[in-house]
Automatic annotation (TrEMBL):
Residue stretches making up the PAS domain: 151-222, 272-313
SUPFAM superfamilies, alphabetized: Homeodomain-like, PYP-like sensor domain (PAS domain)
Top-level taxon of the source organism: Bacteria
Stated name of the protein: Transcriptional regulator PpsR
């Protein structure tokens, strides 16, 4: 507050009537209170405010004219007037004859020491109305926000549960903005990996051209006829439809991929291929097709049964290593051989089910080159119920056992154990090489040895002497060390 610099010179001595007229003209309500806190006079700035109060205040304690929760503010105002000539603004609420409370903001001025107090009030009904409108508007926004959240939740749930593949594509860049799980399964990827990639991708050249023409027509005219498309590594044919979607200033394309009926798709293929696919689907052996990383693209019902999986959808996108007997070893060995030789035959391992069951299996596999996206086919046979034919011991094993028995009592046990250990180690290396098709890198991984250690042991025991040139190649230099006693 900034006071007048020279009130006596600029205003002079005001008489009571002039001061009263000035207060009445500037205040919405003015109350004069004596030193006992009794209202001695009152003035209203408008007839509407006068009609809002239900009784005449003159002769009543001023504290009785306000609501109980406002009395502490009014008492503080009167107490402050005893120490300061002009008090601060304080807000109180008066009861109204119309039901709604009337908020008034007062400032008090003591006329003379221990004399009457003049309280000047501002009517805050207009401000309260604006505040109420603001609160109502905020609550309306909150309700709209939660309603839109519920609508968005239902949309996202429907988007995820729909069986058809749906993609939302940014029209200018033609990149995927959003994809549902069905689209990820159809494209052989998880939905998160599909997002951000260009569309179409992974289709055969004819399908790519047809889809690009479809999207161009939708961007230009808003609609276009559906087209047929097919992925490079899939025989499944489906219809591609698109529509334009505008959101604010951004244009999107809503693309739907609808698989054709199985009978129609089979009929479109040559009869020989159709029969071939039906045989693979109903084969008693497991048939699994994976990508170059070992992630499952498709699997037949026999594999689902052995792996204890309800639907093929649960297996798609998962690594085949999840169900093989030695995680991190078997699949790596198979993949290494497939990349090197394109085929693997009768690889013995275990297949683990989701609920803990294990099955002895033999795996044969083949790699199919498909440009930059090769894929692998695995044929897994259950050999758990096969009658085991125990192989007779080799002459070398029989001779070694006989020699070992004959030397008991003549040679210290420590020396017999050392010689037996060397023989067992050599037999294990030969078994690993036989199991991996003489692939030494895979055999080292299978035995838990480094490649260098395996080469040293092979050279020490004279295993596979026909690979001597490989052992002494410049990039695989072997350091021969005598076995410590």
């Amino acid at each position: 507050m900034s006071p007048f610099r020279a009130p006596l010179e600029s205003i002079g001595n005001l008489d009571a009537e002039t001061a009263a007229a000035l207060i009445e003209g500037t205040a919405d309500i003015a109350v004069v209170i004596d030193h006992k806190g009794i209202v001695s006079d009152i003035a209203f700035g408008s007839d509407d405010l006068l009609s809002d109060f239900n009784a005449d205040w003159v002769g009543q304690p001023w504290l009785s004219t306000v609501l109980p929760e406002s009395r502490p503010n009014l008492e503080a105002l009167l107490d402050e007037s005893n120490h300061r000539s002009v008090t601060r603004w304080r807000q109180v609420s008066h009861p109204s004859s119309r039901g709604a409370d009337i908020p008034i903001q007062y400032r008090a001025l003591r006329i003379r020491e221990k004399g009457s107090v003049v309280a000047v009030g501002r009517n805050l009904q207009g401000m309260a109305a604006l505040q109420q409108q603001l609160v109502d508007a905020q609550q309306a926004l909150e309700r709209d926000y939660w309603r839109f959240r519920q609508v968005e939740t239902r949309y996202r749930l429907l988007f995820r549960m729909v069986s058809e593949a749906i993609l939302i594509i940014d029209a200018p860049t033609q990149r995927v903005v959003e994809a549902n799980p069905a689209a990820g399964q159809l494209l052989g990827e998880t939905p998160t990996r599909v997002i951000g990639r260009p569309f179409p991708e992974g289709f055969d050249p004819e399908s790519t051209q047809a889809i690009n023409s479809l999207l161009a027509g939708v961007r230009a005219a808003g609609r276009a006829d559906d087209v047929r498309a097919r992925l490079i590594d899939s025989l499944q044919e489906f219809l591609v439809s698109a529509s334009l979607l505008r959101q604010e200033n951004v244009t999107f394309l809503l693309v739907r991929l609808s698989p054709l009926l199985a009978d129609t798709a089979v009929a479109a293929m040559p009869e020989a291929k159709a029969r071939y696919l039906r045989v693979l689907e109903n084969a008693p052996d497991c048939v699994v097709i994976t990508d170059s990383d070992g992630r499952i693209l498709t699997a037949n019902g026999t594999f689902l049964s052995l792996a204890e999986i309800a639907t093929e959808q649960q297996a798609r996108g998962e690594s085949l290593d999840r169900w093989l007997g030695r995680p991190g070893v078997d699949l790596n060995v198979l993949m290494a051989n497939l990349r090197q030789h394109s085929t693997v035959r009768l690889f013995a391992t275990m297949l683990r089910g989701e609920y803990g069951s294990t099955t002895e299996v033999e795996i044969s596999a083949a790699a199919v080159r498909n440009g930059e996206r090769p894929y692998f086919g695995f044929f897994i046979r259950d050999v758990g119920r096969r009658l085991s034919t125990e192989q007779p011991p080799s002459p070398e094993q029989t001779r070694w056992l006989d020699q070992l028995t004959d030397r008991v009592g003549r040679v210290p046990l420590k020396e017999l154990v050392r010689e037996s250990t060397d023989t067992i180690e050599r037999l294990c290396i030969e078994a690993a090489l036989k199991l991996t098709g003489d692939n030494r890198a895979s055999a080292a991984e299978l035995l838990g040895l480094s490649r260098q250690s395996l080469y040293v042991k092979i050279d020490r025991y004279g295993i596979a002497a026909d690979h001597a040139s490989e052992l002494h190649a410049p990039d695989k230099k072997i350091v021969h060390k005598p076995r410590p006693e």
